[in-house]
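Run log, item B.
One chain of 507 residues. Sequence copied directly from the ordering sheet:
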Amino acid sequence: MTDARTHTVDVDIAIVGSGAGGGTVAAALAPLCRDGLRVALFEEGGRFGAADNTRREMEMVDRYYLDGGGIRTVSGEISLAAARGVGGSTNVYTGVTFEPPPAVLDKWAVPGLDAADLAPRLARYARQNGVHYHDDAEINRNNRLFLAGCHRLGWDVRKFPVNTRGCVGLNTCNLGCAVLAKQGTARVQIPAAEHAGVAVYPHCRIERIGDGVLHGRADAGGPLPAGPVRIRARRIVLAGGTLNTPALLMRSHRHWRRRWPALGRYFTCHPALTLVAEHRGAVNGSLGHPKSYYCDRFAARGRFLLETCFYPPFATARNLVGLGPEPDALMARMDRQQQILALLLDRARPDNRIELDRAGRTRVHYRVDDDLRRTMAEAIRAAGRLFFAAGAVRAHLPGAPNFFTHRRDADRLVSRIRPDRLAAGRVVLSAAHLMGGCRMGADPATSVTDPRGRVRGLPGVYVADASLFPDSVEVNPYLTVMALADRVAEAVRHDLDTGRVRAEAAA
């Protein structure tokens, strides 16, 4: 029974979530508004402009991130970051823009999904979002130290393609952009969609999905009256992200395990280590864009990437293992710090999964096994070698017997950094590339949607976010999400034209 206070919205197409997936679908379907169709985008978070960004770390974390950026796996070993707000996680990443490696698409083995299909979509969204490389003059010393260290070791190093326009090097990209230089969906695709007639409803959380109906709640501050909301739609596109989309389907269908055996499973997240070293002179890594270079020397074996990074004080401190005068001394001289991010390229496993607790809250099960710990140790050793080749005098390298590893120990990293010292509580892992849970594919036993994002057994319902990924994409996922969302929008248009949903329902 519907609450008497429930506000009803009638649309033809409802899109849930406004990140790389939902924002792309909104823009791709916006031309349908010219034909009289009503397209609407619903977002749990608010809508933020330049004036809303104070660059104060804790304020911005609370504003942009789910649960203040503190979601943890059930084991407590990994901290998961997912954003909310119009634009989703495209608001708080660094603008790094990768195409999916062809070898990854081959491993995914999704019928019809290959480099030839994705290439024009990837190129179009890279062009829309102003993807380019930093000029050498824009690159700060933290990044140049990474480059110098790689060169001294004889390692190949590459520049990141980034999607910024008018960047002034504030370095607080992970806290949003105070000058709106980052060209995510909030800056590009969603404004274009609105201009074409798409309605955007921030502060509206969708909690359940029924037969052509979404049930949710609107908060104060948005365009809908605060209270229960019912959205009636002919087509529904779920793009709330890997933590939200599988959970929404689970909350909505009591027998979801029988209907979709793979729902919530095959979760991957690129577990990451933030590693810190100290130099004798000033590095001033907080001035300038944090990401200019990466090294993929170790990715060919599917192990890890090394990337430049530089995080604000709280985020940096929480990645240190230990208490007392040594971490205090390291944090007291952030101006001398060099930072490296080691991105571990994990594999999809059915037991790494998303579930709901008895209260309906999302829980993530992820096993950090011995193989991943060996990869961690290898990545920390490689980062240590790079730090010392760049001139660092000491580094904080988890897995070593002491808080600091000194330059004199540079030739003993293999013996000093051991996987058995990387147990829970002795290393800090975080993850922001959350993938899987509604994987696409041809086999209903191992996938939730078909290769075009249609949810099996729910006519008129589609998925268009990173939960579609059958496995890790091994690079920053946002451009891949956009290309897949474009394919899903294509399927929505095709199904509208052919009456596919009516035929499925009749069957």
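Observations after the first pass:
- The domain at 133-161+272-345+369-423 is CATH 3.30.410 (Cholesterol Oxidase; domain 2).
- Residues 501-507 have pLDDT under 50 and may be disordered.
Flagged for discussion on Thursday.
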